[in-house]
Fold this sequence. Notes:
The structure holds two protein chains of two kinds. By secondary structure, chain A is α+β, with helices and mostly antiparallel strands. Chain A has helices at 18-27, 35-51, and strands at 6-7, 55-56, 61-66, 71-77, 83-89, 94-101, 110-114, 118-123, 129-139, 144-153. By secondary structure, chain B is mainly alpha-helical. In chain B, 65% of the residues lie in helices and 4% in strands. Chain B contains 13 helices and four strands. The chains are: A alpha+beta, B mainly alpha.
Amino acid sequence: MKVLTTLRRIRCPKLISPWTLTAMALLVSPAFATVDDAHGFAMEAAMPYVEQGFIVREDYWNGEVKSGQQLMIRHQLFKGNEYAFWLGTAQEDVTFELKVYDEKGKAIEIDEKSDQMFHSVRVNPPKTGTYSVVFSLKSKKDKGVFWALAYGYR
Amino acid sequence: MTIPHAVRLFPAIGVGIGFALLSSVNAQGTSEGVQEFDPLAFPGYVVGEVVVPVPSEVFSVLDKLGEPNWQQEIRDLDLPASSDRTQLSLLFGSVVAEGFVAVQAEDKQAVQDIGRKVISLSTSLGLKESVLPHAQSILDAADRSDWPTIRKEFDLTQKTVRDTMEQMKDSDLSQCVSLGGWLRGTASVTSVITKGFSADRAELLNQPMLVEHFLKSIKTMPDRTRDHRAIHKIDQGLQAIHNQMVSAVDGFTKPSVREISIVCEDLLKEIRARG
C-alpha cells in the first residue's frame, strides 16, 4: 500500500498575531495548500479556546496523509487539566474523525465540534497517563490531505 | 508546492493483516457497545513524533490540588562554563524548565535572570540569533509581569532551539534539550509532591511513555553523544525512574516519589558538573 503520510517539523510563525495568522490562512488557495496552512486553521480553531483560558502548546504534529487513512498519536495527559485538540486541514470538503482512548483502550468522552477547515475536541482525562489520539481526514476530491494537530490545556 | 519529507512514521503491528481488519479495528465494538481499542494492534500509521509536555502542564494541576510554594522551588542558576554542546543542550533545557518554575512563582527577578542565562547558553550553542527575539520578549514581558506571554515565549524558545538543532542535523542535541527540561520539571514536581504528599499529586508521575521515549532516543543517538558521561548516567537514571513508574501499579508511594526525586536531582547535578 502506498503511503501518502508524511510528517515534518516546521517553524511556527514568530511574533505574528493570531488574527494575522487567520487572515493568512483564509487567503490560502486550496491549489497551494500546505501543512503550514493546516496549522493556521488549527490555530484558528484554538482562538475561542484561548479566550476561555486554554494555553496553546507551540509543539504540534503535522504532515500529509492519504485520504481516510487512520493516524495515531500517543500523548501524555494529566488528570486535573482540561485539554483541547485542534485538527486542521488545508483542503476543503474534508470530513474529520477523532477519538481519544485511554491506556486500557477505552474511548473516553469527548466534546467535539467541526467546522469546514478544522475539528476541535475537548477532553478531561480521567487518569494521568498515556492516551491514544486516533484520527482521520477524508477528502471528497483529493487523494492526499494536509493536516496539523495542535493542543492546549487549562 | 513543497512535499514535506517523511520522518519517523512507524507502521504499527498488524499492518498487512488486511483491509478487512483495518476497517474492523477502527473502533472495535463490544457486545455492550463500549468502544475498545488496542494501540498495539492499530492497523493505521503511528505518528512517531512525541510531544513532551512543558512543566507548566503539570504545575497547573499541582496548583489546582493545593497551593505549592513555587518560590521555594526556584534553584540557583550557577551554571558551569562549557563548550561541550551536549552539556550545553542539557543545561539549556533545564534552564528553560527553571523559567517555567519562576513563572509559576511569578518571580520577575528570577525570570529576568533566567532570560539572560537563556541568551548566554544560546550564544555558546551558536543559536543566539534565533533565540534572541524570544529571550527579549521574555525580558520585556517580565517588566510587565505578563506571565502568560512569558510562559508562551519559554515554550517557543525551546521549540525554536530544538527545530534549529534538527535543521542542523543535531537531533541528538535537540533530544538533550527535551531531556534537560523534563528532568528539571520532574524534579520540581517530585519536590512539591514530597512536601505535601497525596495520591492525586503523585499520580502526575505516571509518565512511563515519556521515559520510554527518552530511553529510545538515547539508544539512537550517535556514539559520541551516547558515550557522554552525563548521557550515560541519564540513561541509567531513566531506567531507575521507569522501574518506579511501572511498578506503581497501585499508585505511587511517598518513598517511590522520593526515589524519583533523588534520581532527578542527581542527574541535574551531573548536568551542571564542571569540567
